[in-house]
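Late entry, magnesium ion complex.
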Amino acid sequence: MQSYRELDPAGVRGVVFDIDDTVTRNGVLEANAYSAMHLLAGAGFELIAVTGRPLGWTDVIARLWPVRAAVGENGAGWAWVDDAGTHEGYFCTETERADQAVLLDAIRCQVETDIPQVQTTCDHLHRRCDLAFDVGEFASLPQGEIDALVGLIERMGARSSVSTVHAHAVPGAWDKAKGVARALEEVLGIELSAELERWVFVGDSGNDAAAFEYFSKSVGVANVREHLDRLPVPPRYITDGDRGRGFAELAAHLGGARG
Ligand SMILES: [Mg+2]
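Prediction complete; structure with ligand written out below:
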């Protein structure tokens, strides 16, 4: 991994960023990271938040933060605000989502039976497309239980995605990279694959794996070092500071270059 200072800011159009442990610390948005978002938006960068958090949260984030869109549930859907009002988009069709809901319900029941100590997340009620279990937010599951949970999810026919806080059962083909690409197409009319070098992705952990692999200008905040064993492709660049401090360093590098 190279220092973020090696990232050439010329021509960068937008910054796609993860939320948990990328701009937050202990679950709270860091002041320097929020200021950095305003700095970037004020300098004309398009900002896209992408998170494993619920779509109910992205409705709020899209309204309150200086972002063009907020992608939730690891790419399952997105929310945005424009002059016409607030909008939502989904990776899968309504019919597909109805089928997926049946599968998720079956997985939730099986987890309750087989590993009853594993609980759904406290943000469960705000989710629309995935199912998430608390592994490290308020619970602290041993690795063996996380592995058992992941095994059950996959045996029942969903994919799994594990972040620092949650393990997700993912019933559709989305991931953070695919979700962002579809959101950019719907919200901004941008074909991401045609201008990939103009976008920077910033993240920190296992549920950013698809984005670290997809984006050529991928950046890990310093705490990504704790999760390199879960990342088939590490980020190309790394910040000096962890979490919001690292995000703010990167923002200053990009924004400063635009001057
Ligand atoms: Mg994260």
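The pocket of magnesium ion is lined by residues 18, 20-22, 163-164, 203-205 (CB under 6 Å). Will revisit in the morning.
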